[in-house]
Amino acid sequence: MAGIECQKNESVSTPMSKQRLALLSRIDLDVYEKLQALQQNYSHVVHIIDLSALLNSFIKTGIVPDPAKENAAVAASANKVT
Q: This protein's superkingdom (predicted)?
């Protein structure tokens, strides 16, 4: 579908991600470790060029947002203490 592209990750890291993670490791080591662990689990990258194409595909497949879950997520993020 035009507007949405998906590609399989050939390698876990790229030169740009290595550089950004190196900079992050100097600032916040905990976040660095979490992001590095997350990056190991990535299998594909989805590039959304046109958001309307993504929304249209959701509608065609019957995927609709659940307002109860969305409201709960907003409420949880508002109550989160950082």
A: Bacteria
